[in-house]
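Supplementary Data S3. Sequence and structure tokens for construct A.
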Amino acid sequence: MGKTLQSRLEDAYKAWRPGLLARLCEMGVSEDLAVDIVQEVFTDVLARGFWTDVRCHRSYLTGAVVQAARRHWRDRQRRDRRHSQVRQEWTNAAQRTYDVAEQAEVRRALSALMSRLPDRQRTVCALLMEGYDTGEIAARLGLARGTVRRHRQLARDALLGYLPEYPVLRSLLERDPPLR
């Protein structure tokens, strides 16, 4: 007598769960999130009922788990970026006492300047502006400290190169130079 779809899926879950968890941990996913992702993928497969249509179950599950991990990573990056931008705007508004027109012009110039950076450099800059040090940024992004330092240096060089295109920022730096 044949097994039901659910019992076959449970057997696959027991057999392949450790390997899928190991794959996610190799990608730098925390163990708790890895468990959630694997369960989410298996639940999705069961809910959709297309387990019998898949030819190579292990390959399908590995791909689905990796894609789910990437989706979680992208969602977290977007959420962190939005929170960072809001915090940055509030911090700037509280610390600066420029008139409203100049403040709006500075904000537009900074936004345009930062948007020219690649995502990783922009993220590192945002975290630096929030007050995180290199080690904290490395831990938060799952990168090596040297990689964070390199992204910071590349971003600094790029921003200094773009600065002549933004006269409002040049005048701001001349009036209120950054601390070294």
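Construct B, processed identically:
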Amino acid sequence: MEEEEELEVTSAPVATAKEHASPAISYRFPTPRIASSSRVRRPAVPNVHESSRKLISRGVTRFVLGVSSYIDGKLLKRCSGFVIDWDENTRSGTVFTSAHLICSTSPWDEWSGSGQHEYAPDAEVRVHLGEEIAVRGQLVYYNRHYGFALIGVHMDQPPALLACFSSEEVRYAQDVFVLGRDGRFLLQLSNGKVNCRGPSLYTRYHYMYITGGEVLECCTGGPVVDFDGVVMGMKSYDGFVSCSIINKCLHLWRRFGCIHRLHLGLKLSAIKSLGISAQTEKIYLMSDIVDTGLIVEDVSAGSVAEKHGVGKGDIVKSLNGRCVDTTAALESMLLGMCVDRFDNGHDLDSSMDVTLGMFFTSGSVHGTMKFTVNASNDVEVFARRTYNVSDDQDLSTSSSMSPDEASEDDIW
């Protein structure tokens, strides 16, 4: 056996007087040995520049087009889009883009019934196939809730490549590119990571977000792709809509010509978007919940959730037995319920039973709540609650029931 290498450390004398000086003391420590197998291996950092060049060389950017809209000959919006379908018989393609293209007025609160988006479906739409090539497009469909539009366009030649939506879920911290075209049909490309932050209380909760490079407004409606060029979503004016939701929307539209969804009447935020904070610890100490669940930020007046006692500050833990950790995941699950039910032959306007696993903060109790929700093709409008305040009443009084006041049919 080889002798261990020794390291000699000699301490300096500590006495202040010659007669009290102590002899030097020697310590011997074995030199630590690190096995080669225990070395820390860090994952390879993706090469952004190399990956962006591959997108171009593989022809991925060729399905990215420019789209613009006009009212009375005046430019309304300039966005981007991408080809998702091609019909050989009619020589026409389908361009997926943002409904922002035909939006004339955008409210600051998307949930407000008095300030809804105003759209101009009769606006002239042009699809830019090249730097000097623009053809008239036809608005086929647009969805006000999810904010996307489908444009039909005649093309002499089939597209070199059709966009392919991923069948996998978008991952947080995933590296992605946002692609688009500017007014001169020049490619615009930015790189970033999918962020775990959630939408604000004034935007729909199906949005996801990207942090990183600046994204120009002309890229709105363009594809969000991974480093292999697979489409992970569509860039919206605020954030992006994931492929998981888009795939379900297209399935419903292609089969039924409309997109029905369930209206819960809740504004929610994800616990995981709080990060490490005092609020996260408080929630954990109170409910033993740390990384999943959605906080109820507000409840729509007159909604089924309000009638069943759901109040601000409560936590939605699960939907039909499945844990929920983000608002986008909840939206995808609700859409999935509609897809499964309608594919099995049920009417589009039929109601569905929903089971929510809950933590009620007012009583600090866990429970399960089951109620019936209607599917609707309309935009979900959030109704604000009103309070009749007298001299004997406090402004903080809530109109919702506590879990202790609910009937046996409500629970639990």
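The chain is about 15% helix and 35% strand. The chain has a mean pLDDT of 82.
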